Amino acid sequence: VSPDPILEGDLRAISRAATRIENRHPEAEALLKELFPHTGRAELLGVTGPPGAGKSTFTSELVRELRREGRRVAVLAVDPTSPFTGGAILGDRIRMQAHHADPGVFIRSIATRGALGGLSAAALDLTLLFDAAGFDSIVIETVGVGQDEVDIAQLAHCVLVVLVPGMGDDVQAVKAGIMEIAQVFVINKADLPGAGKLESELRFLLSLAAPEIQPAIIQAVATAPSGIRESLEAARQYLMSHPPRLGAVQRWTTRLREMVRARLMARVPAADFETWAQAVAAREIDPYTAAARILHA
Amino acid sequence: VSPDPILEGDLRAISRAATRIENRHPEAEALLKELFPHTGRAELLGVTGPPGAGKSTFTSELVRELRREGRRVAVLAVDPTSPFTGGAILGDRIRMQAHHADPGVFIRSIATRGALGGLSAAALDLTLLFDAAGFDSIVIETVGVGQDEVDIAQLAHCVLVVLVPGMGDDVQAVKAGIMEIAQVFVINKADLPGAGKLESELRFLLSLAAPEIQPAIIQAVATAPSGIRESLEAARQYLMSHPPRLGAVQRWTTRLREMVRARLMARVPAADFETWAQAVAAREIDPYTAAARILHA
Fold it and tell me: Residue A221 in contact with residue A190, Cβ under 8 Å?
């Protein structure tokens, strides 16, 4: 596979390469090695938050703002895996139809892999592909409050967390779980009752946090749209005071450690796990001793 | 540490052991080895679902039903980690105050660890502790739709997924992401508009699924409470046709593989990741080559 059409921004070549990267095609790594020297220019924005917060609409409007600045934009949407097709649920087609006809916007959905570390490895490689292909901004969108979101945060230069008023009991947990990964909080659907209360709660939680964790809080109504420009400006302000370049060594330290771990995982011994499991299920051996014996075999 | 007070159900001894297990105290594994022969009796029920679905209230009422049957119940609540304390967010104290004075209910919150596989290892060990301590039912509650929930599902004998009407755009993704881990769908807040529509959507999605994936669907209002007994009966019906004993070898196969992986991870070479990261950030070497060199060093 030649990297040239990708470096020239050929959308079909980029799309083909993305598929190979996602499927862990044997030639993908060689291609990524060739593309790597051409990376390091794009800004990586993360958008995340709990289900129902209106992230897709917000992302679509954020893309519109970036396009107004004349930037080419790639969107990487990370979806839960479909149990039926094995692929991403929402898919590219129903996502952000507003940008369908715009050749300056490239949208790709990938499915969360069940395997440990699977998501972040593919997502990292795809951002490098888009970066090499000359996209100025890369927006990574995830749904949730779990490990995937923390991984994405380690990848992005700035993370916007989209919340919505009136989420019920769990909102404390959700807010706090994502508190340290957020550089910008977007209170979406801010025309609903409770938006002011949510902002007060956030400000109270932030008052307990370390002074260096002080994300901006923006009220927005993505469907209007309003508050989108302000959200992007808050992100840019963060990037001005925390240039991606300065965080690069730390991000790569984390990524390299994960890449080495993933390669180690591929070396799990081809033991007869099921026979050991039978012995454990029959209480003939405890699982801790069994795991140690498998490893030392 | 003697296992005897734990086997006799001494709550203080159980609590101390749980803390050691969660903190990966060096003596925890020796204790778990001694407890292991006394495990295998408890039923493990998983409760999960997206934020705002009312899981805490549902779990509290489910515990009440189990208590009516005369069962001793342990609840293991898995929370996002607090960025400020490093501990679980919601905590034991504000959780299910209804059962505060009941010595037949033991509640423990643990924080999601950022580390790969950290959550599931601690959660598994805690369920073994509760099982050995003679609890008849163990309820594991998680918030979310991510990898943590899939891990919990691999641990529980039956998973109840709590949903709520009117979750917006993401609900398709959420539903499908948890479709294959659910044995019982609980449509909570079924007095809200849209409960019937949600049930129809679920039935449509299920009609596309393989015939062996056919979870029950129960309408409930946890705050009433209504639909709780029906949810528990649906879970019991599943457990009658899928006795935990029959799935034990498969569950232990998965767990042993993860335990071996976790032990392998602990062997990540003590390389100077930061120096390699500097070279990658400076584009002097690509990350794929760097990871391979660290591993082979």
Answer: yes
